[in-house]
Amino acid sequence: MVDFRRMIPVLAVLAFLLGSAVTASAQVLSCTTAGGVPNQVRGEGTTERMGDLVIICTGGTPTAAGAAVPAVNISITLGNIAITSRLMNTATPPLTDALVVLDEALTGPTVPPVAGQFGCSAPICINAGSGTGAPLYGSATQGTGAVGSPFVTGANRNIFQGVLETPNRLTFFGIPIDPPGTNTRTIRITNVRGNASQAGIGNVAVQIFETVSVSIPSLLPLSGLSTQAVASVQRGLFFEVRSGTGGTFSTQGLQQCVSLASTAAAVATLRYTEGFATAFLKRNVATSSATPLANAEQNALGNTPPAPFSTETMYTTGNTTLQANTTGGACPPGSSCAIGQADFGTRIKAVFLNVPSGASIFVERTSTSANGETAVATATENGIFSAVAAATATGTPGPAGGVVSLTPVNGLATAVWEVLDSVPGSVAIFNFRVWITFTSNPGTNTPALGTATVNGSFAPTPPIPFTAAQGAAASNTLPIPRFVDTSVVSNLFTIAPCQTTLLFPYVTTQAGFDTGLAISATSADPFGTALQSGTCTLNWFGTAFTGVTATPSVTAGTTWVGLGSSILSTVTGGFTGYMIAVCRFQYAHGFAFISDLGARNLAMGYLALIIPDVIGSSGTGRGNGASPFSGAAPNTGEQLGY
User: Quick one: CA torsion of 27, 31, 37, 38, rounded to 10 degrees?
Assistant: First the structure.
């Protein structure tokens, strides 16, 4: 049996070596990547908020006091889509408001940044501490205070802005890596925006991935996946046209000859439904319908507690020591295009096309969803929020928020609303009614005939105020957020002619005969019918002449009379055939009287036939098809079905 006492020195040495091995192992720097929960983003958006990518480091030997702090460059690549974080200058390559944040910095700077480092040159990075000692992250030497602690007393730089090297690659230069020892060091990549519209919108959510790499892997060894999902792309908006009362929609047919000046017609309701619970967002945490221009500092970070903000704005510092955008752009008052700050909340718009001249459009000014979200009309698509003053439209029911009067230009009118109150846990539905007014004058073709349409989408979109190519890339002047237009046109209302078509089956001015013609506008009656006046187009069909003439305006309650030989005085040898009169008013009735000269030997008269207002199945001609104008009753000849 071996003498146990001889083993004691051996065991002591072995214990020392094992202990030393454990201590050494504990000092190895280990860093793990984590993507958190991917943000739900809108497939229509080009500046969508990507989720944060986080690197968590433990172990290693903290930098000794007075020693240089090693630094690395950290780069990220955003899948196959463009990075669209705001550009903060016009340098090549440009600086952005995408950030690397060390140790979840939540406080503002008290010490000016230190110049002389790419990545920490004034005014690129800020301080999270409150002391006045030698800077830790602002220079290459250790500051005073507890070595390895998350916030060392002194001018500790912990926020760095990224440089856009290629359309989908950001690099953060000179990030100091001070091993935390027994503490934890967090490196968070935040404020990355991307063009989600490039990922496409389908029936299944599409994920966007972010890949991280470092310039010196030995100084920042990454374990785990270097590529993490940071966004899930879905359709953000569903638009539909409903009836004026919110029911099933059919294109509203309006008659040109019936004025809507004293009673406006609610032709439709525009419905905007949120695609998911965080698709409609207010501008920042302070924005509300009571304070629509409020500017707020949002310091909570990322996808870990505290929860990410359900706002268009991302992480902001509220400090001027970070490089702000001084090159222009659509910046609301007080923001100075600050880091992470959006220019406005989610906006939705309606684009009305082919609005007939002479018709006026009014839309509801505000809408509040069942869950308390609020959207209010703003004056422009891409400018700062500017509430549109409430107008009045005669005959509208006077909604609580009033109405907005739109002025079509060449048939185009646009209404824009901004979300000022949003509830992230619910799906919002906004409804805006649409009213039409006009004063009838068929004689001057007022309002003009035609069908107006509407498109509903997010805003702003190209070509106002930017082209599609500009909006798809990072910019220092374009607003955030911005979108592509994926809308589909919907019919809204039709202005149909008021007319009666009369057939005079036999008209002659030959062989000593002549034809007297009479057309009466009979809307003046004892029944209170709206008065209608207008001209008649006389379409002649005969062997000697085929052509068109016109009557003067026939006033309601009067009769136009004419003589065939006078109307067709230029037809050599006279005319024999038939005539179709298209009168631009309802309730026209006609009479023809044929006789020899002076009605001495032979005379006869007949009532003009009323041709039904229908077209054939091919879309043209007379037949048994439906009326070409929505709402018209078939086979009336006078459009009495409106």
Answer: 170
Chain centroid to CA 271: 14
Q: How much of the chain, in percent, has pLDDT values that exceed 90?
A: 43
Distance of CA 140 to the CA centre of its chain: 47
Q: What is the pLDDT of residue 395?
A: 56
Q: Which two tokens stand for residue 299?
A: 């310091």
CA distance 406 to 492: 15
C-alpha distances out from residue 587 to 111, 334, 500, 636, Å: 85, 64, 7, 10
Q: Report the alpha-carbon distance of residue 534 to residue 558 in Å, rounded.
A: 11
- What confidence tens digit (pLDDT) does each residue in 90-148 have? 888 888 889 888 777 644 333 333 332 223 333 333 333 333 322 333 333 333 333 33
Cα–chain center distance at 539: 49
pTM for the full model?
Answer: 0.79
DSSP string, 302-350: TTSSSPPPSBS-------TTS----S-----TTTTT-TT--SSS-EEEE
Structure tokens at 398: 């006077």
| DSSP E strand stretches across 344-412 | 347-353, 360-364, 366-368, 374-377, 403-406
Question: Cα(443)–Cα(195) distance, rounded to whole angstroms?
Answer: 52
The answer to whether 342 and 414 are in contact (CB under 8 A) is no
Q: CA 543, 549, 554: angle at the middle one, nearest 5?
A: 135
CB 561 within 8 A of CB 517: yes
Structure-token pair, residue 471: 């909006």
